[in-house]
DNA sequence: CAGAAACTTGTTACCGTTAACAAACAGACC
DNA sequence: GGTCTGTTTGTTAACGGTAACAAGTTTCTG
């Protein structure tokens, strides 16, 4: 539709020695702000104002600019914007390079919330949750001008590295377990309480004590679950069986399960996560111990398919997507506070028991 | 360490009306190229040359510049580089917003390979694998100047949208199933062959025919598995049982399993993935059908824990991480070809049978 | 040893956007 | 009517790099 006559190009016609505006390297170029401005008969700054919703633009002018933008299919160049504003509208996620269920679910929660807030997320995974690799990941993200960082399910080494990172980027940690006095905001699952609930559930069913199939001892989450379990047993005056170090997967659970299945005194097992529980169930079955008739088993995480284990698993539910979303909101909040000295918020989410068929009263 | 005397600042001392170099908004600024140049006593262009490994820099000069960079802890600003070169060294991943095992494993494969190649990856997930959401995702990635895009496990709607995206970004697709004549490179699993191998394995064990617990019919991967299964039965002259639509999780598998368990003629089931198999196993067990004595079950994917199912699952192995790596290498290759008209490469990976305990000969 | 070729280095323009300032124009008030 | 605010718009200068060209050095030739 014809709007108004485009203003004449006000640039000086002749340039320096070399004149022709030769194209730079490769790639098709879309239209830029200047093109829109020319078509709408305004200055590029006015176009910028329209894009950024500045209040002082006449309604009629705004319409004209918007029309021009549409007709040219204009898209603002974020690199230029980033350069000018030092704000990239990109967030960095530091994750652990493996296929653990929790971290991945969080990623999606974070991403969709970030999208809603107008941010893109970039991921930097580390092969090992140690100081040096994390510093490198932060560095990589910082070079790409991320506005903030979320560290997923970190061990202390990670939060340490984050605090000491040279870049002054806002960070939040989600998952893991912490002192409660971390220098930046955290969103955490109350693993100790979760473990307490699980253990108490088993005690309430009449079991004399509860054994534990633990996760990796150097993961705070695993350690907190051990602590909660042990505390509950102490409080109940029950015997505290020994714990052996494990890992997060079914293979490790199977190893632990074989050990436990061999001991006829074992009637209840609290597993550090559902995958471990799967391995434990397998070992119990192979040993001829029936679940839940002979042994009760509780997991942790409530993975999507744990209701279809053999038998369906009683477990502690965690909403990882929700954790991710809350972490993001904390980060955005943190970012908007212009380096105020407000103390970091700490969100703690308590998991809940999901009763299924892997637990039963003792006879 | 003292190197050489810094050259005098060659800039004109007096500027226009306002003089003082007032700082812009927020955030701490690191040193920039000019600072390094001044400290090393060279021009900023020379610093640029050093960073970009240009050959024509005197060794002594290079050393001086590198020392200056180190002492200032210099980090190049990628936004500025992107603006000047139109190359961001960032790749975009389009994924499906859910917790499917395959896609996530691919993400890690891609990310680590991308890191090695000097790229950062940004993810854009879509809630639904349809035309419009995918276009939006592409748009978001394009705005952030990604250099290329990998679409994970797409349905035809995705590849279609990708082909019609207005941006001329290089794309590759990984996963899914395609015509073999897609307009861009693909890395795919040979689902049909995998299904054939699985089905043949069951036929070879003496089963009269093989039933199928299918995935979602609008996913090409699921469809290809149906096709491979059906073809094998035809070729063997076996009866082809009906197929009902499903989904990728254990709940859907359970539904299908209940139907199949009720039919005494069913002695062998090929499941579209391991999670479905888990549900099927559950349903069979509840119906009192023993696996593998009464019914043999085969899965697809070889998820990390499927060896601990009840019983350990015979399944088709896929290396998702490897798929991701190969997709990345295809993308980089594609990007380096200056819009040549070379036909797109298509990689096809054949999954292999992993024998475990869920299959047995008929008696 | 002169001239050419190759190697180094510096200068200037430009990538596309936002920030800061200035100017033009309107309405309000005395 | 003139000054005084406030709104709207334009002009110029960054932001921090790379590209293109020019110019000054060497080093190689014959």
TrEMBL record, chains A, B:
Keyword Membrane: no
Keywords per UniProt: DNA-binding, Transcription, Transcription regulation
Domain HTH lacI-type: from-to ranges: 33-85
GO molecular function: DNA-binding transcription factor activity; transcription cis-regulatory region binding
Highest taxon listed in the record's lineage: Bacteria
InterPro entries reported in the protein's UniProt record: HTH_LacI, LacI/GalR-like_sensor, Lambda_DNA-bd_dom_sf, Peripla_BP_I
SUPFAM superfamilies (alphabetical): lambda repressor-like DNA-binding domains (SSF47413), Periplasmic binding protein-like I (SSF53822)
UniProt keyword Protein biosynthesis present: no
Region (Disordered): 1-27
PANTHER family on file: HTH-TYPE TRANSCRIPTIONAL REGULATOR GALS, LACI-RELATED TRANSCRIPTIONAL REPRESSOR
Listed name of the protein: LacI family transcriptional regulator
Organism expressing this protein natively: Actinoplanes cyaneus
